[in-house]
Amino acid sequence: MTSPPEHNTRSATALQYEGKTAPTVTAKGHGDLADEIIALAKQHGVLVHQDTELSKLLAQLQLGEQIPPQLYIVIAELIAFSYVLQGKFPDNWHNIHQRIDLKS
Questions:
Q1: pLDDT digit string (tens) for 54-103?
Q2: What is the pTM (predicted TM-score) of this model?
Q3: Sign of CA dihedral 14, 18, 19, 25
Q4: Which residues are CB-neighbours of 78 under 8 A, at least 6 positions away?
Q5: Complete domains list, the chain, with CATH
Q6: C-alpha angle 77/80/83, rounded to 5°?
Q7: Please, are residues 38 and 50 in contact by the beta-carbon 8 Å criterion?
Q8: In terms of DSSP bridges, do strands 24-30 and 11-16 run parallel, antiparallel, or are they unpaired?
Q9: Per DSSP, what are the bridge partners of residue 27?
């Protein structure tokens, strides 16, 4: 979910990521509708990222549309960061410090 900072026109775009295809636009709106989307996301524990430029790019997409390949890296970084913030890590990350061999 992204939204621009408060001082700009309020807008929100929600993305859903199932892990098999590119994230898809599931909700979008401006003004009061944007506020409702953001409030609902927060109510359900969805992290909200505020980024004016990304919000402008996502606002160009239609409901049900997948993000374009040009946004894969930035969205992947946001998804990965959201997992870290929630304390979620891939199984193979556990005890990774014990598997590092600096002597090789």
A1: 999 999 999 999 999 999 999 999 988 888 888 887 776 665 566 666 77
A2: 0.72
A3: negative
A4: 49
A5: 2-99 (3.40.1690.10)
A6: 150
A7: no
A8: antiparallel
A9: 14
